[in-house]
Amino acid sequence: MNIVWLILAGAAGGIIAGMGMGGGTLTIPILTLALDVEQKTAQSVNLIAFVVMSAPVLAIHVKNRLVDFPSLLKTAPLALAGSAVCAWFAPDIPAEILSRCFGGFLIALGVWQGASAIKNKLKKDKSFSPQMRPLYLVDCQVLCSSDKAYYPKKFDTKNQPRPR
Amino acid sequence: MDANKAEKSTASRLAFLKYFAALAAGCVNGLFGGGGGMLVVPLLTSFGLTAKKAHATAVAVILPLCLVSAVIYIVKGCFDMQLTLAVGGGVVAGGIAGALLLKKTDNFLLSMFFYIVMIGAGIKMAVGR
């Protein structure tokens, strides 16, 4: 077993994960298809790696107030229950069945996510194409790439006292 | 009145669907050891969160799941110390690099490439070796 290849496989998955595209979905197939790791071992490695990597990331997100706690409370308990039950049974399922199901899951996920990415892209392109004067088009694109709000901010209710 | 009732029932059905989606995401994550995040992000976006917030909250949802699942996997004996250390080190290094890269690239083509690789790997795994 070549350690360099293992580290490279992890790095490839990690880059995708850092970009927010679901790294585990790539790390597991690399490990099992290219490096002949057993399916369940690959899964446990991926789980542990995710915990180690995302703990500091989560701390930063919480600090930046990007974590929405109401929706977290809505989703986390059920997801936690589902995952605990399924993780309990997963090691008892034959590896071949597990890996075939995982393949099916990957196909479905890839088609779904790819389709929605294309849809978003088309929508974005469309909103800039209709009959605009050339100058407007440039303005819009400059605005778009500058990452600023298109419209002036509305009355800020939080920081200013309401007029009575 | 009837319209109001119908609206209410579709709303509750929708809420039920969302709870079901959360459960399904948990099951997938426990069963396959990953991929739950890909399901949780669209779910959170449907609650009205922005993409950035949805990603951050998804990490908060998935982290405890992975922790619990990882402990269960280890208890059940699916664990390889050397492998974990090597791959884990790579993942952490790659994760930092990926987070830095994300700010610089327009990643439509990259994500398309990623989804094609994903479908290809999926077909290979589903067919079997």
Radius of gyration of chain B, in angstroms, nearest whole number: 19 Å
Distance between the termini of chain B: 59 Å
In DSSP terms (H or I, runs of 4 or more residues), the helix count of chain A works out at 6
How many β-strands of chain B, per DSSP? Answer: 0
N-to-C terminal Cα separation of chain A, in Å?
74 Å
Number of helices of chain B: 5
N-to-C order of helices and strands of chain B:
HHHHH
Mean pLDDT of chain B: 83
Structural class of chain B: mainly alpha
Strand content of chain B is: under 5%
Unreliable residue runs of chain B: none
Which sheet architecture does the biggest sheet of chain A show? Answer: none
Using the CA coordinates, give the radius of gyration of chain A: 22 Å
Give helix and strand order of chain A, one letter per element, not per position. Answer: HHHHHH
* 3D shape of chain A: globular
Helical residue percent band of chain B? over 70%
User: How much helix, percentage-wise, in residues of chain A?
Assistant: over 70%
Could you explain how this protein is built, in words?
The complex is a heterodimer of chains A (164) and B (129). With 164 residues, chain A is an all-alpha fold. Chain A has a domain at 1-67. Chain A has helices at residues 3-18, 24-34, 39-63, 69-89, 95-126, 134-146. Chain A is globular and about 60 Å long. Chain B is mainly α and 129 residues long. Chain B has two domains: 1-79; 80-129. In chain B, helix 1 packs antiparallel against helix 2 and helix 2 runs antiparallel to helix 3 (51-76). The longest helix of chain B has 31 residues, at 2-32. At the A-B interface, helix 1, helix 2, helix 3, helix 4 and helix 5 of A face helix 1, helix 2, helix 3, helix 4 and helix 5 of B.
